[in-house]
Amino acid sequence: MGVDVIKVLYNESPKEWKRILSIAALAGLANSGVLWTINHGAAVASTDSGIANLRLMLMFLLCLLTFFIGKRFALIQASVLVEHVVRDRLMRIFNRVRNSELLTIENLGRGELYTKITQNTSLISQSGFILVNAAQQAFVLFFCICYIAYLSIPAFVATLLAIGIGTLIYMQHTQSMDGLLKQLASKEAELLDTLAHIVDGFKEIRLNRNKSEAVFRKFSGVSDTVCGLKIDAQVSFCLDIMFADIFFYTLLSVVVFILPRMVPTYAAVVLMITAAILFIIGPLQMVVQAAPVFERAKSALTRITELEDKLDERMHLGSDATPVDFSGFTTVQLAGLVFQYPPEDGSEGFRLGPLNLTVRRGELIFLVGGNGSGKTTMLKLLSGLYFPTGGMVRVDDIEVSEGKAQSYRELYGTIFNQFHLFDRLYGLEGMEPERVLAAIEEMQLSHVTSYEDGRLTHLNLSTGQRKRLALAITLLEDKEIFIFDEWAADQDPHFRQHFYEVLLRRLKEKGKTVIAATHDDRYWGLADRVVHLEYGKISEDVIR
Fold it and tell me: Which pLDDT score, from 0 to 100, does residue 317 have?
């Protein structure tokens, strides 16, 4: 029952957990002491011994106070400890994400990534509180069973036998839940992906009734499946609880109706044993009800581990053991570069290359070709975001191996066709606000956004405006090589002309290297070279 979760939580801080569980055990013992004092208090109540009653009442209060303080301490400390564990796990995952490879993140998908990070860590977080509470109740259960053994060995054997049979049946049932919980997690990720289609593609579905209905039918179908799986899981958990109730009533019937007929001396303690069994109903139900939480947490832990394993596959490529300074480069050469996308649905993925191209420092290169010719993929390879499946990238005479990848990437400032705008200038925190505002002004965006208190005030802009804001930030980064992937496609004629004739020329005058994918053939004459790409291969390399 969730042994993996307990092991993970325990291994994070074994000393702290030992202390917490020791306090929980003390609270469990005190809780059992409450039962003992009540049972014996009831027996003494029929006598006139006021001193004995007072002594038992004081013992009762002491046990109750010890139980309250111990359980409160254990639960609070466990909650703090688990949240630190979850926080450390989140930091580890996010570190893996940022040091992973682009292709790995693209293949994961947002639904899978978000579900595994948010929902699953939340489930693990919940399990910590349940763990300590269940542990404390398990101690109560143990001490109460010992108390039953003290009162009557036959009752102890019957209780132990019933618990053993019940546990065996329950464990067999919970094993069958693993497949259901895994299927539920997969469908929840699919549901998030479908919801993302509705939100991200809102304009398209709002203009097309058939598309809207089709997407909604897909969402409705997945939602129904998730609902059905959740109902199945809840029904199974309810059956577990009902099983615990039936188990107790059966045990009570044995204690009250059968054992007195079999053991002559049993009648003297039957009331105490009955009280003890009634007392352990709560603790045992708590332990049983904790099982579903641990099963969910175990499933969540498995999914998080799978995510970490996927991210670990190429995470070591994200940083360099020994940074290399490529800033003084003369040439960047693609030598027989090949990239093959993984196959999908039985069909072979797109293949790019072999590519042979030498980019010289200070050059302005236009990359042209039809849609699907491989321009964006080539730019991702050139900038080091993708690793080639064949050939190599060389900077002067140095091969860009995996250990030099991040140093090489630092050469580039990029704006791809699909890009993200951050609300802050991360990495440029020391930039003077006047320079940022001047860059925003040059992009003619001062009327729609500004830069205040270290952040951009508005990002809800048109596509063209977002690209201009991204360009302003990229230019402030002042990298050695700039890549622009169809940047001018969403600009009006005036700013398109400003981009080609003013901004690119200024970069060239500063000695920067620029590679721009473009369809604007009227400006091709401004480039030093025009490289034509067709069906994943360079068909022409024209020096202007």
Answer: 47
d(CA 24, CA 29): 9
Answer whether residue 1 shows pLDDT above 50: no
Between the alpha carbon of residue 4 and those of residues 9, 88, 138, 293, the distances in Å are 9, 18, 18, 13
**In total, how many domains does the chain have?**
2
* Beta strand pairing call for 481-485 and 390-395: unpaired
Q: What CATH number does the domain containing 209 carry?
A: 1.20.1560.10
Q: Is 204 helix (H, G, I), strand (E, B) or coil?
A: helix
What is the reported pLDDT for 507? 93
**Spatial distance between the Cα atoms of 406 and 486, rounded to a whole number of angstroms:** 25
Is position 288 within any domain? Answer: yes
Q: What is the pLDDT of residues 39-80, one digit of tens each?
A: 777 666 656 566 767 787 888 889 889 888 888 888 888 778
What does the DSSP assignment read for 426-470? TT-TTS-HHHHHHHHHHTT-TTT--EETTEES-----HHHHHHHH
Given 283, 317, 351, the domain boundary residue is: 317
Residue at 367 is within a domain: yes
- Residue 329's region, left for phi above 0, alpha for psi from -120 to 50, else beta, is beta
CA distance 36 to 244: 24
Both tokens of residue 252? 């009570």
Taking residues 131-159, what's their average pLDDT?
80
Higher pLDDT, 105 or 455: 455
Q: Are residues 99 and 185 in the same domain?
A: yes
Helix (H) or strand (E) holding 93: helix 50-98
How many whole angstroms separate alpha carbon 313 and alpha carbon 528? 40
Cβ-based neighbour number of residue 280 at 10 Å:
26
Q: How far is CA 24 from CA 13, 38, 141, 345, in A?
A: 16, 21, 13, 53
352 vs 5 pLDDT, higher one: 352
Domain shared by 200 and 297, yes or no: yes
Domain boundary among 317, 349, 383: 317
Looking at the fold, whether 310 and 358 belong to one and the same domain comes out as no
On whether the CB atoms of residues 431 and 476 are closer than 8 A, the answer is yes
Q: What number of other Cβ atoms are within 10 A of residue 261's Cβ?
A: 8
